[in-house]
Amino acid sequence: MTRPRSRYLVRALRAAAREAVWLTCCRHEQGDRPNILLFATRRGGSTFAMELIGANRGVRPMNQPLETQSDNLTLAQALEIPRFRQGQITSLAGAEEERIERLVHALFDGEVVINAPTTPWRRDVDIVSDRVVLKLLDSKPVIGWFDERFDADIVYLTRHPIPQSISCIRNGWTLTVDAHLDDREFVDRWLTAATLAAAHDVMSSGSELDSFVLNWILENLAPLRLLPSHPDWLHVRYEDCVLDPVGTFERMADRLQLTDTERMREVLTRPSQSSRRSTADTRQAIESGEREALVVGWRDRIDADVELRINRLLETFEIDPAVLLPADVAAAES
C-alpha cells in the first residue's frame, strides 16, 4: 500500500513535469481566427469533441482549465480561480468576475497554459499554436457572459440527459444541484416559483435518476434558453457525433474554420485504449458500427414510464425532449 507521503510526492512530481512541458515546449502566437469555447456536460462526449477540434494544426486544446474539483489541480488553477461551491460557476460578479476574465484572457494570449497536451512528439500535437480551444464543463450558466466578454467561437455540446445521468451514477459521481439552487442570482434569473418548487420536489422525493437529470437540467438551462437567440453558436449533439461522425465534423470544420479534416478523421479511428473512457465508448461505437445502440441503448435499461416521467420533468423546465435527439431517432420512438 502506497504511503500518503509517497503518493503526494509522486503527484507533485507529475504536476511539475506537466507544467515544465507547457512552459518549455509550448509557444503561442495568436492568429486571425478566433479562439474557441467548448461548453459541454460531463459524460457527454466533450473529450471527443475537444480532440476533434484540437487535431487541427495550430490549435491548442486545454481540458477543463476553469475546473477546481480535480485531483490534478495545476498551480495556476489553485492561485487564480476563485472557490465556487461544488466547483460550479453558476453566476459571476465583482472580484470573481474580474479574476475569471483575467485568467481566460491569459489562456487565450498564451501567458498561462492549463491542461494542454503533454505529448509534443505526437503528430497531432503542435508545439506552436495560433488558436486555443477551452473545454468548459462547470460554467454553462454563464455562457452568455463568456459570449459578451470574449471574441470567441462558441460550441455547445449536448447529450440526452438520461444516458448522461446513468453514466454519472455508474461512475459514482456526485450532484451539483445545491450549487445552483443556493445561488440566489441563478435562481432569480433562470427559475420560476413553479420550477424551483419542482426542483425541490425532485430532491426530496425523486429517484436517483431523477436527481441526476435535474442536475443536467440546471447545468444546461441557460445555454438551452439562450440558444434560439444565438444562431452564431454551434450546437452539436453527442448523438450526431456517433451516428454521423463525418457529417458532424465537416459541419464543425465549416463553422469553426478548421482546415485539417484529414487529421480530424484520424481522431475518429485512433485506438481507443489510449483514450479516456468517454472518448473510447464513442470511438468503439463508430469503429464497430454499433452506433445506434450507443445513442438509444439506454432505453433497454429503463422502463418506458421512467422515460415518460423524465420527459415531463424536462417539459416542466420548458425543455423539449425531442430536440435532444436526432429527428429520425426521436420520430422512431415517439
Brief overview:
54% of the residues lie in helices and 9% in strands. By secondary structure, the chain is of the alpha/beta class. A five-stranded parallel β-sheet has the order 3-5-2-6-7. It has a two-stranded parallel ribbon with strand order 1-4.
Give a quick set of tags describing it.
334 residues; alpha/beta; five-stranded parallel beta sheet; two-stranded parallel ribbon; 17 helices; 7 strands; 54% helix
Approximately how much helix is present in the residues? 40-55%
Low-confidence stretches: 271-275
Give the C-alpha Rg: 20 Å
Order of helices and strands: HEEHEHHEEHEHHHHHEHHHHHHH
Described by the principal axes of the CA atoms, the overall outline is globular
What can be said about the biggest beta sheet?
Answer: 5 strands, parallel
Q: What is the average of the pLDDT values?
A: 84
Strand order of the largest sheet: 3-5-2-6-7
State the distance separating the first and last CA atoms: 53 Å
Name the structural class: alpha/beta
Percent of residues in β-strands:
5-15%
Q: How many strands appear in the DSSP assignment?
A: 7
Please tally the helical runs, counting DSSP H or I stretches of 4 or more residues: 17
Topology:
Blueprint: H1 4-25, E1 27-28, E2 35-39, H2 46-54, E3 59-63, H3 75-80, H4 94-109, E4 128-129, E5 131-136, H5 143-149, E6 152-158, H6 161-170, H7 177-181, H8 184-190, H9 193-205, H10 208-226, E7 234-237, H11 238-243, H12 245-256, H13 261-269, H14 277-288, H15 291-296, H16 304-316, H17 327-333
Parallel strand pairs: 1-4, 2-5, 2-6, 3-5, 6-7
Helix pairs in contact: 2-13, 6-10, 12-13
